[in-house]
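Quick one, tokens below. Sequence please?
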């Protein structure tokens, strides 16, 4: 195994881990709504309820994520690929007036996401060229649907149809170290 690799090789290797796709929304101190497509989303803790995601340090959305600032994480459904691409663009005008985005709530909400986590910034940590944003989960809104997946630079979907439901938390409750 080689210890030397290019950034492209590392990025491609990270891409082999299949992830879900989320859009994180917030409002900057100047009142401008921001939204970014994120696949670096993870649960952190059930008690207290915490999640995390990562944001590039140079992102214009960065000022929106100050201590206690509100944000929302939207888990996208498989039919929301265009939305994922929309929020992945490096442009400031992501919330057009004639869109489905409800800009009135702080932070903006995206319609038809299969899950939304309403959060407040708990902590922000530096991690290389990214910021690690940890959020207190205040509320969740769930809907039915298949999640949008991302793997090896491509969007796809995941279906657990026909698979037995498994509650890994309940089954392993007494076995965690």
């Amino acid at each position: 195994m080689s210890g030397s690799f290019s950034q492209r090789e590392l990025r491609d290797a990270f891409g082999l881990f299949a992830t879900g796709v989320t859009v994180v929304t917030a409002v900057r101190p100047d009142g401008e709504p921001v939204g970014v497509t994120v696949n670096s989303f993870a649960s952190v803790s059930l008690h207290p309820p915490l999640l995390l995601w990562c944001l590039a340090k140079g992102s214009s959305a960065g000022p929106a994520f100050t201590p206690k600032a509100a944000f929302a994480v939207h888990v996208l459904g498989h039919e929301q690929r265009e939305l994922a691409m929309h929020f992945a663009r490096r442009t400031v005008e992501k919330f057009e007036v004639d869109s489905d985005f409800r800009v009135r709530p702080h932070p903006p909400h995206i319609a038809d996401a299969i899950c939304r986590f309403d959060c407040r910034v708990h902590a922000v940590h530096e991690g290389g060229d990214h910021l690690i944003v940890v959020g207190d989960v205040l509320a969740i809104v769930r809907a039915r649907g298949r999640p949008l997946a991302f793997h090896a630079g491509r969007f796809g979907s995941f279906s657990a149809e026909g698979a037995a439901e498994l509650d890994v938390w309940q089954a392993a409750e007494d076995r965690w170290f």
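Residues 8 and 76 are 26 Å apart (CA to CA). The mean pLDDT is 87.
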